[in-house]
Design a protein that fits this description.
The complex is a heterodimer of chains A (111) and B (322). Chain A has 111 residues and is mostly helical. Chain A is built from five helices and no strands. In chain A, helix 3 packs across helix 5. The longest helix of chain A is centred in the last third of the chain and has 12 residues. By secondary structure, chain B is mainly beta. In chain B, the strands form six sheets. Chain B has a nine-stranded antiparallel beta sheet with strand order 23-24-25-26-1-2-29-28-27, with no helix packed on it. Chain B has a four-stranded antiparallel beta sheet with strand order 3-4-5-6, with no helix packed on it. Chain B has a four-stranded antiparallel beta sheet with strand order 7-8-9-10, with no helix packed on it. Classes of the chains: A mainly alpha (111), B mainly beta (322). Chains A and B meet through loops of A and loops of B.
């Protein structure tokens, strides 16, 4: 990754996610699945990532990551999905969540 | 706040024989303010327990004698992750929201903030440890680690050689600093003089190292989230050894070594904290106080182990000595 791209990502709404989540298709890590096309994507639906049982159960009732569902999840992950294994503990500012979801909704190729 | 006191039946088993035995220990569980999501804990002065109330932007102070909780606000935008007790007796906090190292004076509650340099915004600050020179070393999950000298205010920040992921950090009895990378699945030794990090690759690929702790002999114990196991690295020989807790889908989050060299770890798949005696290779299980306890860190003082249950807004305290 070039320093220019790194600097742009560090200043983007995605910065709090970058430690655990990549943006390229298929690029999962031990810390989290890729966020490529996350808006509208099936919940716990990527092959090759070991989702928590809690998120898999949640997916039966909430099959897709809508903008509304992402907003609720980002506000307090452990409240919406008790037992989630996501390390991020939440983003209380609605404006920051909206900015992040808007940013993630735009197709991006790499981080 | 109220505390629940109960004697808890625990299962202890040797992995080879898997013959359970039962024993009773005293466990206390304390509520903290709703929405705190207590992330890390540390022993404060006079038996008090510090915790980071990550979603409330506070340092919480729990009195285990009464169950009373007091909060010290850390400032607008605060989202504290780690807390440790410094050699000066103060609480030292890695605050991801403020992107700063924060000190809280235990006598006055005065809050002092050292922000990271502007070229390291939103570093997702994680955990800290002090070296023998009184400097605090810290990690940021976006791929950085750094050092603050409180005496001079000088802060240096470096990038992990392999990028994002630096998570837990620890000091050995000899004063060496090591950290682990969750996304990078490695251990790193830091040269305290130059700041250079030397990567030490574990034998298990993609193990997802969350946290690291040193025992009294300088061995490093590592919790492997993705690998679902506990590993030990011996710096003097370079040897690795691993142990896997029982369970179908083990996820090992936190690790801590107490004053008796008993290793403690949290295993999210089984919603439990486990202690492990390296001499006997015997495990003892401490279930979460309810489902989805999500204990993200462990710390304690002689005779006591503290377990922040972030998923339940509770702190569990285990008494390990009579």
């Amino acid at each position: 990754m070039s320093l220019f791209i790194a600097a742009a990502l560090a200043a983007s709404p995605y910065a709090p996610c970058a430690a655990c989540h990549a943006l390229e298709p298929g690029r999962n890590s031990p810390a989290g699945p890729t966020l490529h096309a996350i808006v509208g994507r099936p919940v716990a639906g990527l092959e090759g990532f070991n989702y928590s049982p809690a998120l898999r159960r949640f997916a039966r009732r909430h099959p897709r990551w809508t903008r509304t569902l992402l907003d609720r999840f980002l506000a307090d992950p452990e409240a919406l999905v008790p037992g989630t294994e996501m390390g991020f503990i939440g983003m209380s500012d609605p404006a920051r969540r909206r900015a992040l979801i808007d940013w993630l909704a735009v197709p991006r190729r790499r981080n | 706040m109220h505390a629940l006191l109960f004697g808890l039946a625990l299962l202890a088993a040797t992995p080879a024989a898997a013959q359970p035995a039962r024993e009773l220990v005293n466990v206390r569980v304390y509520d903290v303010p709703a929405g705190s999501r207590p992330h890390d804990v540390a022993p404060g002065p006079d038996g008090l327990i510090w915790y980071t109330g990550q979603r409330r932007g506070v340092l919480g102070i729990l009195d285990p004698e009464t169950g009373a909780v007091r909060e010290v606000p850390l400032g607008a935008g605060s989202a504290p992750h780690g807390v440790i007790r410094g050699p000066d007796g103060a609480a030292w906090i890695t605050d991801g929201g403020l992107n700063a190292i924060v000190r809280v004076d235990p006598a006055t509650d005065a809050v002092r903030v050292w922000r990271l340099p502007a070229e390291f915004p939103d570093s997702n600050l994680n955990t800290a440890a002090f070296d023998r020179e009184g400097r605090i070393w810290f990690t940021g999950q976006t791929g950085v680690y750094g050092r603050l000298d409180p005496a001079t205010g000088e802060m240096r920040v470096w990038r992990d050689p392999e990028g994002r992921g630096p998570y837990g950090i620890a000091a050995t009895p000899a004063g060496d600093i090591y950290y682990v990378s969750l996304a990078g699945s490695h251990l790193a030794r830091v040269d305290r003089a130059t700041g250079a990090a030397t990567i030490i690759e574990p034998p298990t690929p993609d193990q997802g190292a969350r946290r690291v702790w040193a025992d009294s002999r300088g061995n490093l114990w590592i919790s492997e989230w993705n690998g679902g196991q506990l590993s030990r690295y011996t710096p003097s020989t370079g040897a690795w050894r691993s142990w896997r807790p029982e369970g179908e889908r083990t996820r090992v989050y936190a690790v801590y070594v107490d004053d008796r060299d008993i290793v403690w770890l949290t295993e999210w798949g089984g919603n439990a904290t486990l202690s492990f005696d390296p001499a006997s290779e015997r495990w003892t299980r401490y279930p979460g106080s309810a489902a989805n306890a999500n204990v993200r860190q462990i710390l304690g003082r002689p005779g006591w182990v503290y377990l922040p249950e972030s998923g339940l807004d509770r702190i569990m305290v285990v008494r390990t000595a009579p």
